[in-house]
Amino acid sequence: MAGDPIRFGILGCAEIARKVSRAITLAPGASLHAVGSRSADKASSFASANGFPPGARAYGSYDAVLDDPDVDAVYVPLPTSLHVKWAVLAAQKKKHLLLEKPVALNSAELDLILEACESNGVQFMDSTMWMHHPRTAKMREFLSDSQQFGELRTVHTCFTFAADPDFLENDIRVKPDLDALGALGDTGWYCIRAILWAADFELPKSVIALRGPILNRAGIILSCGSSLYWEDGKVATFHCSFLENLTMDISAIGTKGTLRLHDFVIPFEESKASFSAATQSGFTELVTGWVPKPSEHVVMTDLPQEAHMVREFSRLVASIKNNGSKPETKWPTISKKTQLVLDAVKASIERGFEPVEVAIS
Q: Which family does the similarity line name (predicted)?
Protein backbone atom coordinates (compact mmCIF):
# COMPACT_ATOMS: atom_id res chain seq x y z
CA MET A 1 0.00 0.00 0.00
CA ALA A 2 1.50 3.33 -1.08
CA GLY A 3 1.98 6.13 1.40
CA ASP A 4 2.27 6.15 5.16
CA PRO A 5 0.59 3.33 7.08
CA ILE A 6 -2.78 3.89 8.71
CA ARG A 7 -2.15 4.47 12.41
CA PHE A 8 -4.45 2.53 14.72
CA GLY A 9 -5.56 3.25 18.23
CA ILE A 10 -7.25 0.55 20.33
CA LEU A 11 -9.91 1.30 22.91
CA GLY A 12 -9.57 -1.23 25.70
CA CYS A 13 -7.40 -4.24 26.45
CA ALA A 14 -9.88 -7.05 25.80
CA GLU A 15 -8.52 -10.51 25.01
CA ILE A 16 -9.59 -10.21 21.37
CA ALA A 17 -7.54 -7.00 21.13
CA ARG A 18 -4.39 -9.13 21.44
CA LYS A 19 -5.32 -10.94 18.24
CA VAL A 20 -6.17 -7.76 16.37
CA SER A 21 -2.98 -6.05 17.61
CA ARG A 22 -1.01 -8.85 16.00
CA ALA A 23 -3.09 -8.48 12.84
CA ILE A 24 -2.31 -4.75 12.66
CA THR A 25 1.38 -5.55 13.03
CA LEU A 26 1.23 -8.11 10.22
CA ALA A 27 -1.01 -6.20 7.81
CA PRO A 28 0.61 -4.13 5.06
CA GLY A 29 -0.41 -0.50 5.29
CA ALA A 30 -1.21 -0.50 9.00
CA SER A 31 0.64 0.28 12.22
CA LEU A 32 -0.03 0.24 15.96
CA HIS A 33 0.05 3.74 17.35
CA ALA A 34 -1.90 3.87 20.63
CA VAL A 35 -3.92 1.93 23.15
CA GLY A 36 -6.19 3.28 25.84
CA SER A 37 -7.49 1.70 29.01
CA ARG A 38 -9.11 2.90 32.22
CA SER A 39 -5.64 2.47 33.73
CA ALA A 40 -2.46 3.88 32.20
CA ASP A 41 -0.47 1.00 33.73
CA LYS A 42 -2.77 -1.55 32.14
CA ALA A 43 -2.48 0.17 28.76
CA SER A 44 1.30 0.26 29.06
CA SER A 45 1.47 -3.42 30.02
CA PHE A 46 -0.78 -4.32 27.09
CA ALA A 47 1.40 -2.38 24.65
CA SER A 48 4.56 -4.07 25.96
CA ALA A 49 3.04 -7.54 25.80
CA ASN A 50 1.58 -7.17 22.31
CA GLY A 51 4.36 -5.87 20.15
CA PHE A 52 3.59 -2.17 20.03
CA PRO A 53 6.53 -0.35 18.42
CA PRO A 54 8.80 2.08 20.26
CA GLY A 55 7.10 5.43 20.56
CA ALA A 56 3.58 3.98 20.62
CA ARG A 57 1.37 5.68 23.15
CA ALA A 58 -0.37 4.10 26.14
CA TYR A 59 -3.17 6.19 27.57
CA GLY A 60 -5.13 5.97 30.80
CA SER A 61 -8.44 6.74 29.07
CA TYR A 62 -10.32 6.05 25.87
CA ASP A 63 -10.83 9.76 25.29
CA ALA A 64 -7.08 10.29 25.07
CA VAL A 65 -6.84 7.87 22.15
CA LEU A 66 -9.63 9.69 20.33
CA ASP A 67 -8.00 13.06 21.04
CA ASP A 68 -4.64 11.94 19.64
CA PRO A 69 -4.29 13.79 16.32
CA ASP A 70 -2.00 11.11 14.91
CA VAL A 71 -4.57 8.30 15.24
CA ASP A 72 -6.27 7.66 11.90
CA ALA A 73 -8.52 4.77 12.92
CA VAL A 74 -9.64 2.98 16.03
CA TYR A 75 -10.44 -0.62 16.79
CA VAL A 76 -13.14 -0.88 19.45
CA PRO A 77 -13.41 -4.23 21.31
CA LEU A 78 -15.38 -2.84 24.25
CA PRO A 79 -18.49 -4.57 25.65
CA THR A 80 -21.47 -4.15 23.32
CA SER A 81 -23.31 -1.94 25.80
CA LEU A 82 -20.53 0.66 25.37
CA HIS A 83 -20.39 0.58 21.57
CA VAL A 84 -22.89 3.31 20.79
CA LYS A 85 -21.19 5.82 23.11
CA TRP A 86 -17.62 5.26 22.02
CA ALA A 87 -18.26 4.47 18.35
CA VAL A 88 -20.29 7.65 17.89
CA LEU A 89 -17.64 9.67 19.72
CA ALA A 90 -14.88 8.12 17.58
CA ALA A 91 -16.74 9.07 14.40
CA GLN A 92 -17.28 12.60 15.69
CA LYS A 93 -13.53 12.82 16.28
CA LYS A 94 -13.03 11.78 12.62
CA LYS A 95 -11.54 8.40 13.50
CA HIS A 96 -12.32 5.58 11.10
CA LEU A 97 -14.03 2.74 12.92
CA LEU A 98 -13.30 -0.99 13.08
CA LEU A 99 -15.92 -2.23 15.51
CA GLU A 100 -16.05 -5.58 17.28
CA LYS A 101 -19.17 -7.69 16.81
CA PRO A 102 -21.95 -7.70 17.76
CA VAL A 103 -21.80 -4.08 16.69
CA ALA A 104 -24.76 -2.92 18.81
CA LEU A 105 -27.48 -4.14 21.14
CA ASN A 106 -30.10 -3.42 18.47
CA SER A 107 -30.53 -1.79 15.08
CA ALA A 108 -31.61 1.53 16.59
CA GLU A 109 -28.24 1.82 18.33
CA LEU A 110 -26.46 0.76 15.16
CA ASP A 111 -28.29 3.46 13.22
CA LEU A 112 -26.82 6.06 15.57
CA ILE A 113 -23.33 4.67 14.94
CA LEU A 114 -23.74 4.50 11.17
CA GLU A 115 -25.27 7.98 10.99
CA ALA A 116 -22.30 9.36 12.92
CA CYS A 117 -19.87 7.62 10.55
CA GLU A 118 -21.68 8.83 7.45
CA SER A 119 -22.02 12.42 8.60
CA ASN A 120 -18.34 12.58 9.53
CA GLY A 121 -17.05 10.83 6.40
CA VAL A 122 -15.36 7.95 8.21
CA GLN A 123 -15.13 4.32 7.18
CA PHE A 124 -17.08 1.73 9.18
CA MET A 125 -16.38 -1.99 9.22
CA ASP A 126 -17.27 -4.71 11.71
CA SER A 127 -14.63 -7.26 12.65
CA THR A 128 -16.20 -10.43 11.26
CA MET A 129 -12.81 -11.78 10.25
CA TRP A 130 -13.74 -14.84 8.17
CA MET A 131 -15.36 -12.57 5.58
CA HIS A 132 -11.84 -11.48 4.55
CA HIS A 133 -10.18 -14.90 4.22
CA PRO A 134 -9.22 -15.73 0.61
CA ARG A 135 -11.23 -18.95 1.02
CA THR A 136 -14.41 -16.90 1.32
CA ALA A 137 -13.88 -15.37 -2.13
CA LYS A 138 -13.24 -18.83 -3.61
CA MET A 139 -16.43 -20.18 -2.04
CA ARG A 140 -18.36 -17.23 -3.48
CA GLU A 141 -17.12 -18.20 -6.94
CA PHE A 142 -18.63 -21.66 -6.50
CA LEU A 143 -21.95 -20.35 -5.15
CA SER A 144 -22.17 -17.92 -8.07
CA ASP A 145 -21.59 -20.61 -10.70
CA SER A 146 -25.02 -21.46 -12.10
CA GLN A 147 -23.69 -24.60 -13.77
CA GLN A 148 -21.89 -25.98 -10.74
CA PHE A 149 -24.09 -24.82 -7.85
CA GLY A 150 -27.34 -23.73 -9.44
CA GLU A 151 -29.84 -21.77 -7.35
CA LEU A 152 -29.47 -21.55 -3.58
CA ARG A 153 -32.30 -23.32 -1.74
CA THR A 154 -31.13 -24.11 1.80
CA VAL A 155 -28.44 -22.97 4.26
CA HIS A 156 -27.61 -24.49 7.65
CA THR A 157 -25.04 -22.96 10.00
CA CYS A 158 -23.81 -23.82 13.46
CA PHE A 159 -21.31 -22.21 15.82
CA THR A 160 -20.98 -23.62 19.31
CA PHE A 161 -18.27 -23.93 21.94
CA ALA A 162 -18.24 -25.45 25.41
CA ALA A 163 -17.56 -22.59 27.80
CA ASP A 164 -16.00 -23.40 31.15
CA PRO A 165 -17.73 -22.61 34.48
CA ASP A 166 -15.76 -19.41 34.97
CA PHE A 167 -16.87 -18.10 31.56
CA LEU A 168 -20.49 -18.97 32.26
CA GLU A 169 -20.33 -17.11 35.54
CA ASN A 170 -18.06 -14.15 34.86
CA ASP A 171 -17.51 -13.45 31.15
CA ILE A 172 -18.94 -10.18 29.84
CA ARG A 173 -20.97 -12.20 27.30
CA VAL A 174 -23.19 -13.55 30.10
CA LYS A 175 -23.73 -10.19 31.85
CA PRO A 176 -26.93 -8.22 31.11
CA ASP A 177 -25.25 -4.85 31.65
CA LEU A 178 -22.31 -5.61 29.33
CA ASP A 179 -23.26 -7.95 26.47
CA ALA A 180 -26.96 -8.60 26.89
CA LEU A 181 -27.25 -10.53 23.60
CA GLY A 182 -25.29 -13.51 24.98
CA ALA A 183 -24.69 -16.39 22.60
CA LEU A 184 -27.03 -14.88 20.00
CA GLY A 185 -24.85 -11.80 19.74
CA ASP A 186 -21.59 -13.74 19.86
CA THR A 187 -21.72 -17.08 18.04
CA GLY A 188 -25.15 -16.32 16.56
CA TRP A 189 -23.79 -13.23 14.81
CA TYR A 190 -21.45 -15.44 12.81
CA CYS A 191 -24.22 -17.88 11.91
CA ILE A 192 -26.54 -15.13 10.71
CA ARG A 193 -23.74 -13.49 8.73
CA ALA A 194 -22.90 -16.81 7.07
CA ILE A 195 -26.53 -17.33 6.03
CA LEU A 196 -26.77 -13.83 4.61
CA TRP A 197 -23.44 -14.27 2.84
CA ALA A 198 -24.65 -17.49 1.21
CA ALA A 199 -27.85 -15.71 0.16
CA ASP A 200 -25.81 -12.88 -1.38
CA PHE A 201 -27.11 -10.63 1.42
CA GLU A 202 -30.75 -10.88 0.42
CA LEU A 203 -32.71 -10.39 3.64
CA PRO A 204 -35.19 -13.11 4.62
CA LYS A 205 -38.85 -12.19 4.77
CA SER A 206 -39.29 -13.56 8.29
CA VAL A 207 -37.70 -15.58 11.08
CA ILE A 208 -39.06 -17.99 13.67
CA ALA A 209 -36.87 -18.72 16.67
CA LEU A 210 -36.59 -22.40 17.56
CA ARG A 211 -38.16 -23.53 20.80
CA GLY A 212 -35.98 -24.52 23.73
CA PRO A 213 -33.44 -21.71 24.09
CA ILE A 214 -31.35 -21.94 27.24
CA LEU A 215 -30.98 -18.80 29.36
CA ASN A 216 -28.94 -18.15 32.50
CA ARG A 217 -30.35 -16.79 35.75
CA ALA A 218 -30.00 -13.23 34.49
CA GLY A 219 -32.00 -14.03 31.36
CA ILE A 220 -29.02 -14.04 28.98
CA ILE A 221 -29.18 -16.50 26.06
CA LEU A 222 -26.65 -19.32 26.36
CA SER A 223 -28.03 -21.41 23.49
CA CYS A 224 -30.65 -20.80 20.79
CA GLY A 225 -31.52 -21.24 17.15
CA SER A 226 -33.83 -19.99 14.44
CA SER A 227 -35.25 -20.67 11.02
CA LEU A 228 -35.27 -18.02 8.28
CA TYR A 229 -37.66 -17.81 5.33
CA TRP A 230 -37.48 -16.00 1.99
CA GLU A 231 -40.38 -15.16 -0.32
CA ASP A 232 -38.91 -17.30 -3.11
CA GLY A 233 -38.91 -20.42 -0.91
CA LYS A 234 -35.34 -20.41 0.38
CA VAL A 235 -35.03 -21.65 3.96
CA ALA A 236 -32.14 -21.44 6.44
CA THR A 237 -31.53 -22.55 9.99
CA PHE A 238 -28.85 -21.87 12.55
CA HIS A 239 -27.86 -23.00 16.02
CA CYS A 240 -25.54 -21.12 18.37
CA SER A 241 -24.42 -22.01 21.88
CA PHE A 242 -21.93 -21.60 24.71
CA LEU A 243 -22.78 -25.10 25.97
CA GLU A 244 -21.67 -27.57 23.28
CA ASN A 245 -18.47 -28.84 21.72
CA LEU A 246 -16.63 -26.53 19.34
CA THR A 247 -18.38 -26.64 15.96
CA MET A 248 -18.27 -24.15 13.07
CA ASP A 249 -20.28 -25.50 10.14
CA ILE A 250 -21.83 -24.13 6.96
CA SER A 251 -23.86 -26.22 4.53
CA ALA A 252 -25.22 -24.34 1.52
CA ILE A 253 -27.36 -26.46 -0.77
CA GLY A 254 -28.29 -25.49 -4.31
CA THR A 255 -30.31 -27.06 -7.08
CA LYS A 256 -27.12 -28.50 -8.63
CA GLY A 257 -24.43 -28.39 -5.94
CA THR A 258 -23.54 -28.34 -2.27
CA LEU A 259 -20.92 -26.35 -0.33
CA ARG A 260 -19.70 -27.56 3.06
CA LEU A 261 -17.04 -26.55 5.55
CA HIS A 262 -16.42 -27.21 9.23
CA ASP A 263 -14.22 -24.28 10.36
CA PHE A 264 -15.78 -21.20 8.84
CA VAL A 265 -15.17 -18.80 11.75
CA ILE A 266 -11.57 -19.79 12.53
CA PRO A 267 -9.81 -22.16 10.10
CA PHE A 268 -8.25 -25.33 11.47
CA GLU A 269 -4.88 -23.95 10.31
CA GLU A 270 -3.83 -20.32 9.96
CA SER A 271 -2.00 -20.61 6.65
CA LYS A 272 -4.52 -22.71 4.74
CA ALA A 273 -8.21 -23.47 4.69
CA SER A 274 -10.43 -25.78 2.69
CA PHE A 275 -14.02 -26.41 1.69
CA SER A 276 -15.92 -29.24 0.07
CA ALA A 277 -17.87 -28.75 -3.15
CA ALA A 278 -20.19 -31.28 -4.75
CA THR A 279 -21.95 -30.98 -8.11
CA GLN A 280 -24.64 -33.18 -9.67
CA SER A 281 -24.20 -35.74 -6.89
CA GLY A 282 -25.70 -39.20 -7.26
CA PHE A 283 -25.26 -42.84 -6.31
CA THR A 284 -23.30 -45.63 -7.91
CA GLU A 285 -25.27 -48.28 -9.77
CA LEU A 286 -25.94 -50.45 -6.71
CA VAL A 287 -26.24 -47.45 -4.38
CA THR A 288 -23.05 -48.35 -2.56
CA GLY A 289 -21.34 -44.98 -2.87
CA TRP A 290 -21.43 -41.49 -4.30
CA VAL A 291 -20.55 -40.41 -7.83
CA PRO A 292 -19.02 -38.01 -8.42
CA LYS A 293 -17.44 -37.62 -5.00
CA PRO A 294 -17.28 -34.14 -3.47
CA SER A 295 -14.05 -32.30 -4.25
CA GLU A 296 -11.85 -30.70 -1.61
CA HIS A 297 -10.53 -27.21 -2.37
CA VAL A 298 -7.54 -25.89 -0.40
CA VAL A 299 -6.79 -22.17 -0.24
CA MET A 300 -3.38 -21.03 1.00
CA THR A 301 -2.76 -17.61 2.53
CA ASP A 302 0.35 -15.72 3.56
CA LEU A 303 -1.59 -13.69 6.11
CA PRO A 304 -4.10 -14.72 8.79
CA GLN A 305 -7.67 -13.72 8.03
CA GLU A 306 -7.66 -10.95 10.63
CA ALA A 307 -4.65 -9.36 8.92
CA HIS A 308 -6.51 -9.53 5.60
CA MET A 309 -9.34 -7.69 7.35
CA VAL A 310 -7.02 -4.99 8.67
CA ARG A 311 -5.34 -4.63 5.28
CA GLU A 312 -8.67 -4.12 3.50
CA PHE A 313 -9.90 -1.68 6.14
CA SER A 314 -6.61 0.24 5.94
CA ARG A 315 -6.82 0.35 2.14
CA LEU A 316 -10.27 1.94 2.35
CA VAL A 317 -9.11 4.43 4.99
CA ALA A 318 -6.02 5.34 2.96
CA SER A 319 -8.15 5.98 -0.10
CA ILE A 320 -10.31 8.38 1.90
CA LYS A 321 -7.34 10.04 3.60
CA ASN A 322 -5.07 10.35 0.57
CA ASN A 323 -7.42 10.50 -2.41
CA GLY A 324 -10.58 12.07 -1.03
CA SER A 325 -12.62 8.94 -1.73
CA LYS A 326 -16.00 8.33 -0.15
CA PRO A 327 -16.31 5.62 2.52
CA GLU A 328 -17.24 2.20 1.16
CA THR A 329 -20.93 1.55 1.95
CA LYS A 330 -20.77 -2.23 1.49
CA TRP A 331 -19.58 -2.94 5.02
CA PRO A 332 -22.07 -0.84 7.02
CA THR A 333 -24.88 -2.26 4.86
CA ILE A 334 -23.84 -5.83 5.65
CA SER A 335 -23.60 -5.02 9.36
CA LYS A 336 -27.06 -3.47 9.35
CA LYS A 337 -28.61 -6.51 7.66
CA THR A 338 -26.96 -8.85 10.15
CA GLN A 339 -28.24 -6.76 13.05
CA LEU A 340 -31.78 -6.68 11.64
CA VAL A 341 -31.95 -10.47 11.46
CA LEU A 342 -30.45 -10.80 14.94
CA ASP A 343 -33.06 -8.36 16.28
CA ALA A 344 -35.84 -10.37 14.67
CA VAL A 345 -34.63 -13.64 16.17
CA LYS A 346 -34.44 -12.05 19.62
CA ALA A 347 -37.94 -10.64 19.17
CA SER A 348 -39.27 -14.06 18.15
CA ILE A 349 -37.85 -15.62 21.31
CA GLU A 350 -39.38 -12.87 23.45
CA ARG A 351 -42.78 -13.24 21.73
CA GLY A 352 -43.06 -16.96 22.34
CA PHE A 353 -41.51 -18.15 19.05
CA GLU A 354 -43.90 -16.24 16.82
CA PRO A 355 -42.88 -15.35 13.26
CA VAL A 356 -41.23 -11.92 13.05
CA GLU A 357 -40.84 -10.08 9.78
CA VAL A 358 -37.45 -8.67 8.83
CA ALA A 359 -37.69 -5.22 7.29
CA ILE A 360 -34.95 -2.74 6.45
CA SER A 361 -35.49 0.42 8.46
A: Belongs to the Gfo/Idh/MocA family.
Q: Are strands 290-291 and 282-283 parallel, antiparallel or unpaired?
A: antiparallel
Residue 352 placed within a domain: yes
145 & 292 share domain: yes
- Using the predicted structure, report yes or no on whether residue 325 has a pLDDT greater than 90: yes
| pLDDT of residue 301 exceeding 50 | yes
Q: Which H or E run contains 239?
A: strand 235-241
Mean pLDDT of 150-171: 98
- Write down which residue in 105, 130, 155 finishes a domain: 130
Pair 88, 141 in one domain:
no
Cα separation, 131 vs 11, whole angstroms: 23
- Beta 272-279 vs 295-300: how paired, if at all? antiparallel
Residue range(s) defining the domain that contains residue 203: 132-304+339-357
- 193-222 confidence digits (pLDDT tens): 999 999 999 999 999 999 999 999 999 999
243 and 292 within one domain: yes
Q: Could you tell me if 351 and 219 lie in one domain?
A: yes
Q: What is the mean pLDDT of residues 262-280?
A: 98
Quick check: is 324 in a domain? no
The pLDDT value recorded for residue 2 is 56
Residues 88 and 221 in one domain: no
Known catalytic residue at 175: no
Question: Which pLDDT belongs to residue 361?
Answer: 66
**pLDDT score, position 80:** 97
Q: Are residues 235 and 167 in the same domain?
A: yes
From the candidates 101, 336, 337, 346, which is the catalytic residue?
Answer: 101
Q: Which of 357, 2, 305 is nearest to 132 (CA)?
A: 305
CA atoms of 75 and 71, how far apart (whole Å): 11
- Res. 3 pLDDT band, cuts 50 70 90: confident
Bridge partner list, 29: none
Q: Are residues 196 and 293 in the same domain?
A: yes
Cβ 12 vs Cβ 292: under 8 Å: no
CATH number at 50 reads 3.40.50.720
> Within a 10 A sphere around the Cβ of 280, how many other Cβ atoms?
11
- What counts of helices (H) and strands (E) characterise the chain? 11, 18
pLDDT tens profile 219-239 = 999 999 999 999 999 999 999
Do 198 and 226 share a domain, yes or no?
yes
